[in-house]
Amino acid sequence: MKAFRGPKVWLWRWRRNPLKRRADVVEGWVVLGACLLTVLAGVLAGLAAAGAVEHGLARERATWRPVVARLVAQAPGSSREHGDRAAAGDRVWAEVRWRAADGSARTGQVRVEPGSKPGTPVTVWTDPQGHLVSRPSTASEAAFRSTLIGLLVGVSAAAVPCVAGLAVRGRLERRRMAAWDTEWSRLGPQWGRTV
């Protein structure tokens, strides 16, 4: 059973009051600490995650380069099928060959138009070691991605102190109610007696 509560009075736990108990002061500090930790953890973790993602994506944009590769063999499918499926954006996997920055020949699998002939040029993206990578994010895509990840990490990090504060506050509330029950069981039978 919940105790009756009157109208909310802000900062009542820190006001002078002869009826204020030690549990009220502890609960006030727990709530204040949990609120501050929730905000700080959320903001700091979110900013750190967003910065790390933004930095990583900017490094990819700076180091990944487009390279012209050539098909090694004819791509699966036929050009006739390609005309029918072009609207759907269907592409097939095919092997391509390119030269890395150090001059070595590399091969890999990329998606190409169905029925493409051997030797057809295909633009691929490579990292500094010459390995195939996906196209790097544009600046606007990187900003959106880093903001979204920062928000998710921030909310997740803020949930930890918030839930911990709620758990501690709930425990304090149960202890307070148990203490009231004990006092009531001791004083309740005397209520209404005439002296």
From TrEMBL:
Keywords: Membrane, Transmembrane, Transmembrane helix
Stretches the record annotates as Disordered: 105-129
Positions of transmembrane segments: 148-168
InterPro entries on file: MT1774/Rv1733c-like
PANTHER family the record matches: MEMBRANE PROTEIN RV1733C-RELATED (PTHR42305)
Protein name: Integral membrane protein
